[in-house]
Amino acid sequence: MANKYCVANWKMNFNSQQGKEFISSLNSKDLNNGQSQIILCPSFTSIFSIVDASKNSTVRIGAQNMHFENSGAFTGEVSANMLNELGVNFVILGHSERRHIFGESDKMIQSKMIQSIENGLIPILCIGEKLSDRESGNTKKVLRSQLEFGLENVSGEYIIAYEPVWAIGTGKSATSEMVAETHGVIRNILADLSIHDNVSLLYGGSVSPENASQLSAVQYVDGFLIGGASLDVEKFYNIYLDL
After folding, report:
1. Catalytic residue status for 163
2. Pick from 27, 50, 116, 168: most CB atoms within 10 A?
3. How far apart are CA 59 and CA 78, in angstroms?
4. Residue 95 a catalytic site member
5. Topology of domain 5-242, CATH
6. Which pTM was predicted?
């Protein structure tokens, strides 16, 4: 059985004080009702304070990105080793905003996957097609390519998050039927790559309290990677309870 996860991607939101207020409010709730592990992914500047605020909590902390080298002349970058030293457990890699806004290649993401695992982090590999890919019938081709490149020579524990690019931050969520079909396709691709079915497969893309229950009931959905709704404690907690 795959583990279940409820992951908050705060993106470039919340300063340290706002993040601490969020986790304080979250920790005041019953976090034993859900069946999933909560992971909060703040910005780099807030990581230390959020890790400290979660010390006596079941909540775990992740980063939103990292560099593919362990050290070097890479101004403005952060390594997996640095994140591990801070007490970070997870890291989001290959998010569509990193791929399409910052031009990260499959090779770069694959290098990050290896580097993160070697330094004790559990990567959350994001994959997903653009609207033009889906409309042209190339969804399976795109996902297979991202998985083949992203997981090449990768061994160790990791999580996969399917996020259709056209549903991220748009308010447009894939229907449960679309998610079921696509997650089934991903499971088949992973089987072709001889990857066991205990790898957790998350869905992301305008997840909200209104659609979480329906989406969580879909076969092969092992949790969510949540953007906008993760900035509201009540919304995030309600999604967590639906897993």
Report:
1. yes
2. 116
3. 23
4. yes
5. TIM Barrel (3.20.20)
6. 0.96
